[in-house]
Amino acid sequence: MLLVAVNLRAAVTSLGALLDEVRGGLGLSATMAGFVTTLPTIAFAGLGALTPWLVRRFAPARVLVVAMLALAVGQVLRVLTDSPLVFVLTSALALAGIAVANILLPMLVKQHFPHRTGLVTGAYTMALTVGTTVAAASAVPIAHAFGSWRAGLGVWAGLAAVAVLPWVPLALRARAAARRAPRTAAAAPRARIRPGRTRLGWAMAVYFGAQSLSGYAIMGWLAQLFRDAGYRPETAGLLLAGVTALGVPIALLMPTLAGRLRTLRPLVLGLTTASTLAYLGLALAPHDGALLWVALLAVGQGAFPLILTTIGLRARTADGTVALSAFAQSTGYVIAALGPLLVGVLYEATGGWTAPIGFLLVALAVQTGAGMVIARPRYIEDGR
Questions:
Q1: Model confidence pLDDT, tens digit, residues 244-265
Q2: Which of 23, 175, 229, 287 is the most exposed, having the fewest neighbouring CB atoms within 10 Å of its CB?
Q3: CA-CA distance, 213 to 205, in Å (whole number)?
Q4: Rounded Cα distance, 325 and 54, in Å
């Protein structure tokens, strides 16, 4: 699971770091480049929603093996082409693998570690954060070392291939067990769990979407904010990296806390407080208090590991977990796609950061309201 998690953002952040080189190498237009940067949220929203359908027909281990193979093959093929269209299509193949794995991991944690949900979720969220940071930081040096952007993107295919190996025996055993199972048992229908028809399901989706919206907006625009505040580009980039780096221990700690608390209200309100102070600080004193605002942003972004843990906590069964995970993440990523876009529109229209930060505060208020709903212990199988 940790090997899979390390791969879940490397294909995205390595491309972001090398986007200028890829545009020059393939002759991508600005419109095409913009589509490529939006493609992850589109894939995560659309393809992630198909995962429950796949799990009802195939063993989760088999689905995960195919997903990670798609990720590896897509990353290889996209660095072998000189066609912009083929690059986009093969990137979509890689992102399809990530989209399915995104949904499967909370289910697999519930299935294999039902009494250690918080601990294991924290570990894989930390692995995801580390993979995100390492890919973003090392893609350019790797490309320079080998003299091509293709190396900076393609190297991560090897990591995805390694992540497949431990799951192959599980997939083979699942296939053999399915063949031995009586046909009547195999054909027995299972009750469909529909999170979209419940208040809890929508609250989970809104919380996931609002925190992802803020996260993508921060990743896309925080460095520009610090540059506008007077920092050199290199320093602004380091400050942005600091949010991710400080998020590593928070990603490990947050799920453990969530698993031990009867209600999540203290965590929801604490994360909201940290984010609110960070946003106000960025609006009023972005230069003088930069380190403090970065630290508070990192704490506020603990909402991501919190919601991943809550997916497991709010379902009794593996089927409930995968259904809730698919709905919350696929719907949430549709919401998240608006974040960087609207922040950019407001920044361009006003020429400053007051309006964009005001928008993020509104999104934070919506996130907090949804958080109050999911904070109370209940289960998606109850259909409320």
A1: 888 888 888 888 888 888 899 9
A2: 287
A3: 12
A4: 14
